[in-house]
Amino acid sequence: MADLELKIARPRVRIAPSPTGPLHIGTARTALFNYLFAKKHNGVFILRIEDTDLERSKKEWEKDIIEGLKWLGLMWDEGPVAEGEGYIGNYGPYRQSERKEIYKKYIQKLLDEGKAYYCFCSEEELEAKRQYFMSIGQPPRYNGKCRNLSEKEVKEYLEAKKPYVIRFKNPNKKVVFNDLIHGKIESDSSEFGDIVIAKDENTPLYNLAAVIDDFEMKITHVIRGEDHIPNTPKQILLYEALGLKPPQFAHLPLILGPDRSKLSKRHGAVALREYRKEGFLPEALINFMAFLGWNPDKEREIYSLNSLIKEFSLERCQKSPAVFNKRKLIWFNGFYIRQKNIDKLTNLCLPYLIEAELIKPKIESDKYPPVFGGEIIRQSFIIQETGEIVEFEKIKKMIAIYQERLRVLSEIPELIDFFFKKDLNYKKELLKWKDAEEKNILEALERAEETLQKIEEKDWNAENLKNMLVKEAEKFSKVGDRGYFLWPIRVALTGKEASAPPFEIAEILGKEKTLERIKKAKNLLQS
RNA sequence: GCCCUCAUCGUCUAGCCCGGCUUAGGACGCCAGCUUCUCAAGCUGGAAACGCCGGUUCAAAUCCGGCUGAGGGCACCA
After folding, report:
1. What is the pTM of this model?
2. Options 3.30.1370.20, 3.40.50.620, 3.40.50.2020, 3.40.50.300; which CATH number does A2-97+256-323 get?
3. Measuring CA to CA, how many Å separate A309 from each of A27, A213, A313, A487?
4. Which partner from A67, A172, A411, A426 sits 20 to 30 angstroms from A518, CA to CA?
5. Residue–nucleotide distance: A129 CA to B55 C1' (Å)
6. Does the domain at residues A428-526 carry the CATH identifier 1.10.10.350?
């Protein structure tokens, strides 16, 4: 199989989404595999917009698809550059809606050569036939009623403006092709009968449009989802009827939801943009999607887009479908967040803090990106609740101590919100460590206050704080459990059951606020 | 209903093509321990799979057949 793949020195592959909804995660993965294959073999990756169905296609979805692919870093060599704009590449236009002239020739050719014909059957007739075939245990297909209409009849109907479609004259034979992933696949074309290939002389339906475009764009390898296997024989027959050489086919295993059915909306998020908004990093998505139905022959699991290119091969693609495991995606994301440069990570987190109304831009007119992940200029912000100014550098410190705890960007507000609050809202029971009694807690807080009071502003840093507080903690507990001392302090500062260590938090909070929060905790205890 | 495709831990998978090296390896998740005020991260250990039945063979997760199960497709959608 390797030689089949390598026969063509510079493969041309494409991703052909139809803009009838936001970029689907499955489409993104297919795009990734096409991209990897193209780059691996020094080939060309093409984006073609399949918007033949004008009713369902929308420009906003085209935009979503283009932005999504760019965000993932899967840049195409040929295709539309931006929504509504021109193209790069010499085989365009790359939107099917703009290719009518091209389709027209091919449809006419099929008609002229008697390989396609007009069909005037009504919707009701067709439905009845389908029912009939089902009832006798046969595949539902067209019975060929209009197949042998005389030229005269066709002309009459056409002149009478009778509604029609154009059907393919199926040679009804065995079709065999060699799938690069599945191997030999056989089927009998009589199963699907005379399919409709065009609505009229200028508007082909999917199967025909794909064939014409793939030929015209000199596509060498069609790499797509397994749900297209049943379409392949139809397309091969169309290639034959047109006298064209079909490309190689490779059908990727599907992505399934947790219930093992094709991944769809009811399983939760399927649009790439939703993952982006939730705070997944492109690196994580790429790495995760690559391992859905493929793996290198190594135990390594962490791969960048570039290292994937080096390792990729169709032969190592799986035949069986893969269940989308969000937990693993989350793990990958946490991993990449931990790897991230802290300045960049801070930039990525800012929109979430703004969205959560913890902070706002200093200048009211500054429009902060409603689109997540946008580029943000480092600057100061206003804390919503207190009106204080907070520097980028300070926010960066907050995020730094939470970097290893962050799994998805959208979690950041709930993790660090206490830094931005005037009053912490927690129950006094939370201050209690194990069997500690109230007076012990109070004592701990008082001791902490005294200790902290003595530390000078210039020495107010995590390292120092840790030294001092740990020393006290050890003196405080008779049983050697630092928790009796440190737990109440940490809760006093954060109001949370779980958080980063109190020393690091105290450093960021500053002496004044730290002491203030300890006082408040004491008051809470005595209330 | 008909056609096509697939089948190793809960999930992603290695091994299968070229049978013995497999007490079936890794990762996520789960459990336990270490570290530790908590959480996380990190480290160590653990539980966890060849769908079933036949055949071929000295020997089968690996080759063959059947069964079962799962998925996909059957539009004037793509």
Report:
1. 0.95
2. 3.40.50.620
3. 18, 26, 9, 49
4. A411
5. 45
6. yes
